[in-house]
Amino acid sequence: MKREGFTLIELLVVIAIIAILAAILFPVFAQARAKARQTTCLSNQKQLGLAILMYAQDNDETLPPSNYSAAPASGNTGWYYMVDPYIKASVPSSMAQVGNRKLSIFVCPEYERSAWSATINSPTRSYVANRMIFGGYDRNLPAEYWEAPKPLAAMQAPAQVVMLAEAAGGCVWGQGVDDPAILSGQHNTFRVCNLYIVYGRDRHSGGASYALGDGHAKWFRAPDPNFVQGAGGIGDATPTISHGGVAFQKAVSPNAAAWYWEN
Q1: pLDDT at site 29
Q2: Where are the domains of the chain?
Q3: Contact 237, 225 (CB under 8 A)
Q4: Beta strands 207-212 and 258-261: pairing type?
Q5: Which residues does 225 contact at the CB level (< 8 Å), separation at least 6?
Q6: pLDDT digits (tens, 9 = 90+) for 27-59
Q7: What is d(CA 157, CA 86) in angstroms, rounded to the nearest whole number?
Q8: How far apart are CA 243 and CA 34, in angstroms?
Q9: Residue 188: its pLDDT value, please?
Q10: Which tops the pLDDT comparison, 262 or 174?
């Protein structure tokens, strides 16, 4: 006798097999997409690092300031505007200028999926400069905190000095401070920007990408836990000191893979 179709049991078995395959494959696809975003982020930082070095070559081998303000009445000009002519990314100054355009090279594609992307007013960038070597002239800070950018020769170990790091997007610079003792002292003024670094450093597979002083970019694992969150939520956190990945201070973590501050 000719069979007209599948039985209910057979259909249920096929559906169950498809569901099992989907459960197995979907996480694999998600991991592959995340890995692709990580690769793009690393490429972004590599290009930005080289652009910064080109800027330095055209300016007496001196790095650009992380930001500066020409007058008290004017806004701050970030390092990315000074570097942009070397990569011609046409970095927008606000999301209103972004429109339907693709996010620029100054934004990590994984940043859009982070909790901070919905809370920051300037999601047109997600990389920050190391203020320990870039310096800066921030009109919102007292003059005693202003510092001139350093020459390339000031870096004793360029391949281990951080130039750019991943952040939440609200700052143009960071110092990578991860020591609560330092945060509660002199550098407490910069606490907000430094906390942004903390949230950015476990963005990709438990780590983050950094551009180093010799122009190369590399992924480094974040400490675990990456931060200790307080009762205040996402904005209330104490960083966990890193001794193996990227650390604030060489003297505190001499065996770290890279540092913000050589001392």
Answers
A1: 57
A2: 8-261
A3: no
A4: unpaired
A5: 240
A6: 755 667 888 899 999 999 999 999 999 999 999
A7: 25
A8: 26
A9: 65
A10: 262
